[in-house]
Amino acid sequence: MPATDDLPLHDIDTAAAHLRDVLAQVVEHGPAHAALVVYDERTGLSRALAEGYRRNLPGAVFIDFDKVAPDDVLAAFRRMAPSDLVVLVQSTNFRLEAFRIRVELFKLGLKVIEHVHLSRMPGAQGAHYIESLAYDPAYYRGVGRALKERIDSASSATVDSGGELLVFASTLEPAKLNIGDYSGMNNVGGQFPIGEVFTEAQDLEAVNGRVRVHVFGDTSYLVNRPETPITLVIERGRVVGAENATPEFERLLEIIRADEGEVWLRELGFGMNRAFTRERRVNDIGTYERMCGIHLSLGAKHGVYPKPGFKRKDARYHVDVFAVTEAVYLDDQRVYRDGAWEV
């Protein structure tokens, strides 16, 4: 991969400021614990984040992944003590044979901050990514917990995507939080940026209606935005129609149907990250998933919520699609208006 241009100095300064807050407020890293930063220098964004961590972690060990052997990286991990911090800054996704990095680091009791697929966000998208790292605890924790409370007590949900209504006529699964608060959790940290509350219908067949989709994740895990939003027709929790579908989206549906028989709609995601909007996007679908608005998943795979009749070995796909979000209702209470959550 050829190296990309450096980001402007003001973006690097902004990254350093946001990472300072992430370190102090999100993972609560302090001087009593060691820090290890494994990074690469392949992209301007990876170099900017590495510099941001250098400014905030003067006593940390820094390892350029491309200049050492994999065994050296694994050995450095194993020298860490529980509650120490490991930061992974990856232009792609570091490969260490069968070692699933974040999972294994959590097993060692380490805190983890993971930045992945940075090469998918070139140019101005790097600035959007840096903006998405800003941490506002009052917003994420206050609004996030309030959303969870409303979701957990609701008997239904409705997504209005501009005249089309998708109705979840079912109680919802207990919502999961990704709001930068790990109190009471076994693991501290994860993939950044953060900002999401997610659930799904307890009765998947109680989901019916229509929803306009302005972005979907394609087979390369990249944001694909059709010129005209695609309208999905949902009956009993399954996609039975796709109006204005592009050839790439039709191909995606065909792949899911070929392996799973039908296309289920599962996740109901409440994205909270205000750095990303319908117009302000990044190419990496896993990053854009935090966009402030509703995202849904196509395919039978959603391991967080086991359901009767869905076997892990047979559920292969979880494809994120993003609804044109005009309004969201939990029961009859509107919780989303003018591009923002109101709870």
What's the mean pLDDT score? 95
Radius of gyration: 20 Å
- String of helices and strands: HEHEHEHEHHEEEEEEEEEHEHEEEEE
Determine the number of helices (DSSP H or I, runs of at least 4 residues).
8
**What is the beta-strand fraction?**
25-35%
Helices and strands in order, then pairings?
Blueprint: H1 9-26, E1 35-39, H2 44-56, E2 61-64, H3 70-78, E3 85-89, H4 101-107, E4 111-115, H5 124-132, H6 137-153, E5 157-160, E6 165-168, E7 176-178, E8 189-191, E9 196-200, E10 207-217, E11 223-224, E12 230-235, E13 238-243, H7 247-260, E14 265-271, H8 285-288, E15 293-298, E16 319-323, E17 327-330, E18 333-337, E19 340-341
Textual characterization of the structure:
By secondary structure, this protein is of the alpha+beta class. The chain is built from 8 helices and 19 strands. The strands form 2 sheets. Strands 5, 6, 7, 9, 10, 11, 12, 13, 14, 15, 16, 17, 18 and 19 form a 14-stranded antiparallel sheet that branches. The chain has a 5-stranded parallel sheet with strand order 2-1-3-4-8, sandwiched between helices. Strand 3 (85-89), helix 4 (101-107) and strand 4 form a beta-alpha-beta unit. Helix 1 (9-26) packs parallel to helix 5 (124-132). The radius of gyration is 20 Å and the shape is globular. The protein starts with 8 loop residues before the first helix and ends with a strand.
